[in-house]
Every structure is written in C-alpha cells, then in structure tokens.
Fold this sequence. Notes:
Shape: globular
Helix content: under 10%
Oligomer: single chain
Order of helices and strands: EEEEEEEEEEE
Mean pLDDT: 96
Strand content: over 45%
Distance between the termini: 37 Å
Low-confidence stretches: none
Largest sheet: 7 strands, mixed
Structural class: mainly beta
Amino acid sequence: xxxxxxxxxxxxxxxxxxxxxxxxxxxxxxxxxxxxxxxxxxxxxxxxxxxxxxxxxxxxxxxxxxxxxxxxxxxxxxxxxxxxxxxxxxxxxxxxxxxxxxxxxxxxxxxxxxxxxxxxxx
Length: 122
C-alpha cells in the first residue's frame, strides 16, 4: 500500500480543512486506516481511525466532535474533515494503513504516507 496525504494549509482558528489520503494497492479496501499528527517537539499521536467498511471509527479525545474520518474504497481514499480548528491542531498530519487488522483500535500500522502540514493561526 502506498499512501499520499494532501489538503493541508494555513488557516485561522475556527476554520476547516479537508485532508485527503490517496492509496494504491490491492489491500487498501480491507485495511484499517488512521490519521496521525506530529507537532514540533512532540510525539506523534493518533487522531482518528476507521475500519475497512467505515462502520467503526475511533477519535482522540482532543478532536472528538470536531474531526470526522471517512473512506471511499471505490476511490481508494480516506478523508479527514477537520472543523473548528485550533492553534493546538497545528502539526504535520500523516495517514497510515494497518493491513494486519489484529486489534481495534488499530495498533499495528505497517504502511505510512508522507505528511501534509496544517497550520492554524490564532
């Protein structure tokens, strides 16, 4: 699975962005997918995850009610709708795939894409 994130940018607090992760590979449609972020000087953290069918989702407490993860297996795409952005959401956002599907929430991400930068000004 190859992954490429896009959709980041510089926005003001309260704005929205829709991040997109384009995937290639036969195993995408069966993989658990996740969005992560890493801010300067901080560890990478999980933001959201979704199972292969889109019927199960997971969100970090910090983004619940503001972010929504979804997927379109026909288009090999995973989306992260980010609303009511805050300066503390500033980070490099990555998408990742867990093709092992051994646990939920997913914990064995084995494919990673390059990130897309989200910067939120106050």
